[in-house]
Amino acid sequence: MTRFSAFISYSREDGALVDKLRSALNTRELSYWLDTAEIKGGDVWEAVIRRALTQSDTLLVIVTKNIIDSFVETEIRLAQDLRKPIIPLAFDDTIDGDAEIVRLLRRSHFIDFRRKPEIAFEDTASAVSRAYLAPVVSTYNVKGGVGKTTVTMNLGAYYFKRSEKRVLLIDFDPQTNLSTALVLPKIDRSKRGLFGIRSRQTRVDILPTLQETKRSALGVLEEAMRIADQSDADFDIGKYVYTLDGGSPGPVLDIVAGHSLIRRLATEASQSQAGKAIRGFARFVGQCRREYDCIFIDMNPSISVLSKCALAAATHILSPVKPDMYSMQGLNLLEEISGETDVEARGCEQLIVINDPREDKNQIVRSRIAQSAFADRLLAPELVYSRHFLAKPDRTVNPSLTFLAAYGNWGESPNSARRSLRNVAEEVANKIGLHI
Ligand SMILES: Nc1ncnc2c1ncn2[C@@H]1O[C@H](COP(=O)(O)OP(=O)(O)O)[C@@H](O)[C@H]1O
Ligand SMILES: [Mg+2]
Question: Helix, strand or coil for residue 241?
């Protein structure tokens, strides 16, 4: 499954209308998802619908009398929970009534098919093609040290700096490596000493301040659990993000800082808290998808509620692989997790990128992956080893983020590193549907 422009929600009795809508979308090369399951209802069905909604940019509802008391209502509620744009298509006068399901649609602008259906189909197609939601890429591998954080940080910086995109990074690893690398201590020049003379500049470490004020992943998760069951409650996104560079409107690089205490969700949450965190976090990300061009979630390698949150909210999983003798094992385990344990992640498209191929000169790992079930997920470009990607303790991060990596500089870095990052970034953008 990949990304879809629209999810079509309809009642079985309206099959003929669905066919017309499909051909209208087909003519304009707009993709759609359509539920053809015989058995509706139940947890698995709901998870499948959530996943399909996550992969779709908008929900089209065929509104006729047939949708009253049907599964369409559940689909609308799930779409609203994920803050998905909804476009009702009115084929009869049901839209003017006051059925509960119609009330759910009140806030959405409907397209009227009652008079000139040809024009209405046209309007629907243009509304769908205008709908764009940011792809959400979770960098995940069940192994540490494979380059998840490095890839997240460099792709984010690339799309911001070189493609002028609005980028959000979410640090979802209790180790907070991404935040440590990017959220810089700031020099406070505002302090004035005796007689108004500038006192010595003091360095303010921003990261602890962000964490104390809940401007972090912990703040998001606490709010997620609080409002998960209040369908109308929205996140105030501005309360949780910190701008690293750029500004609104225009290109921006924002981060939701990490917090070590989110590990508690993995170890201490009850099943009901876990469910709330997953749903609430998906809503947060769903809201953010309207504000940014692309979103990256830097995950930790655990298999836990934390990973479920990040996987459920993602449209794509990006898995860096270091080509060593254990890498196939890691991939197989990942397949098991995303395919079986985490119903939430089933159908989330995975991309595999080889990182630091120095040890695999004969491309043994690449050819092994190419012969496995993962063959079509493996990206052709690789991220090469470069000291410009390496996190070094003695190097402070370039404050203006004019970097190749967070630690190097685009202009000064060697061609090979630049080319490799550019190739990976272009290929990933292509796969996730980001126009750069
Ligand atoms: N392509 C690369 N070139 C140079 N160093 C790299 C590269 N990829 C990762 N590293 C370094 O390897 C270490 C682990 O990478 P990291 O991104 O933190 O992995 P993960 O997030 O998967 O645990 C870091 O020190 C990082 O700087
Ligand atoms: Mg990491």
Answer: coil
Last residue of a domain, one of 110, 130, 150: 130
pLDDT tens, 301-329?
Answer: 888 899 999 999 999 999 999 998 888 78
Cβ–Cβ < 8 Å for 136, 285: yes
Look up residue 401 and give its two tokens: 């983020």
Yes or no: say if 89 and 62 are a contact pair by the CB < 8 Å rule: yes
Same domain (yes/no): 320, 424: yes
What is the DSSP pairing of strand 56-63 with strand 166-172? unpaired
| Shortest-distance atom of ligand 1 to CA 384 | 1
Q: Are residues 93 and 30 in the same domain?
A: yes
Rounded to whole angstroms, the Cα distance separating 256 from 89 reads 37
- Give per-residue pLDDT as tens, 16-30: 999 999 999 999 999
Task: Give the list of residues 6+ apart from residue 188 with CB closer than 8 angstroms, or none.
Answer: 201, 202, 203, 204
Query: Counting atoms of ligand 1 from 1, which one is nearest the CA of 151?
Result: 17
Strands (E), 241-340: 242-246, 252-256, 294-299, 316-321
CATH number for the domain that contains residue 83: 3.40.50.10140
Q: Pick the ligand that lies closest to the CA of residue 141.
A: 1
What is the C-alpha separation between 139 and 301, in angstroms, rounded? Answer: 9
Q: The domain containing residue 72 runs over which residues?
A: 4-130
Spatial distance between the Cα atoms of 52 and 308, rounded to a whole number of angstroms: 16
Same domain, 207 and 354: yes
Ligand 1 atom 16 nearest Cα: 147
385, 390, 418: which to mutate for ligand 1, most atoms within 8 A of CB? 390
Instruction: Tally the domains of the chain.
Output: 2
DSSP codes, 73-95:
HHHHHHHHHTT--EEEEE-SGGG
Tokens matching residue 350: 């995975």
Token look-up 């304009």 returns 28
Q: Is there a single domain that holds both residue 112 and residue 192?
A: no
CATH number of the domain bearing residue 372:
3.40.50.300
Q: Check whether residue 240 and residue 371 sit in a common domain.
A: yes
CA distances in angstroms from 120 to 24, 26, 263, listed in the order given? 10, 15, 50
pTM of the complete model: 0.92
Final residue of a domain: which of 130, 159, 175?
A: 130
Arithmetic mean of pLDDT, 44-63 = 93
Judge if the upstream peptide bond of residue 249 is cis by omega within 30 degrees of 0: yes
Confidence class for position 359, pLDDT limits 50, 70, 90: confident
